[in-house]
Amino acid sequence: MPPVLRFAPSPNGPLHLGHAYSALLNFDMARASGGRLLLRIEDIDPTRCRPEFEAAIYEDLAWLGLAWEVPVRRQSEHLDEYRRAVERLAEQGLIYPSFESRAEIARLVAEREAHGVWPRDPDGAPLYPGNAKRLSAAERARLIDSGAPYSLRLDMTAAIARARDLSWHERGEGPNGKTGRIAAAPHAWGDVVLARKETPTSYHLSVVIDDALQGVTEVVRGEDLFHATSVHRLLQHLLGLAEPAYRHHRLIRDEAGLKLSKSTGATGLRELRASGMSAAELRRRIGLP
Ligand code: GLU
After folding, report:
1. Which residue among 5, 12, 16, 42 has the greatest number of ligand 1 atoms within 8 angstroms of its CB, and so is best to mutate?
2. In b/e form, how buried is each residue of 5-15, taking b as 16+ CB within 10 angstroms?
3. Which residues line ligand 1 (CB under 6 A)?
4. Which CATH architecture has domain 78-251?
5. What is the percent of the chain where pLDDT is above 70?
6. Average pLDDT over residues 43-52
7. Domain locations in the chain?
8. Which CATH superfamily is domain 1-77+253-289 in?
């Protein structure tokens, strides 16, 4: 079976040099191995994703010389599949709703931090500090029926109890230079949100479902997602999904050494193209043959 790779941008801003690096690595690796390259549009967040960004993605990638299979999978067209996966986890008793607003969560974290250190996830966000797991079924039903907004969280302790000693196969360097089998450490993320009242999914959930459904065998993506792979392995296990290999690559940084952001300025692919740069010059600038 030929390898299956994918590039999975979110159309919530313009593409920059970092996206180009990831897309070209996937493209080059697919070509070198006689594999397939899929493009997936990760557009589950209707408040941030816009059609003009999606149109620009196709334009920028074509300019880079990429070719991908069609039809392109757009996550917003598959919300029911994600909803069903959350239901399956709920049937296993692994999901609970929490009702605190962002402001309430911030207040609870501040309260906890006033008494000592409150743990943060690998991205630096505080773990969920609330007690929603302990609400009674009746209280949950009452709050949901009242129309209150809610998040559906994974009960991490219960989930890990069903999936001990998970690991993934890392072919890239990762942030600590380790390759081979990497032990997953999902507890570091706490009770992650897998869906919300208004959006029946999340990045973590959709990415594992789609990678499995599309038969992706090798996930090539930035090392900023290295630690998230722990959550992805756990969800794959709980949902009985196939496990791809991972290759986390270095990030392209700006002159100050910072990760590139969505407000692209000088590193935007559109701007570079308008400045007269060719795709071959762009490859050289980011260290690709
Ligand atoms: N959609 C994610 C992003 O644009 C990438 C997801 C992935 O490669 O797993 O950052």
Report:
1. 42
2. bbbbbbbebbb
3. 8-10, 42, 207, 221, 225
4. 3-Layer(aba) Sandwich (3.40)
5. 99
6. 96
7. 1-77+253-289, 78-251
8. HUPs (3.40.50.620)
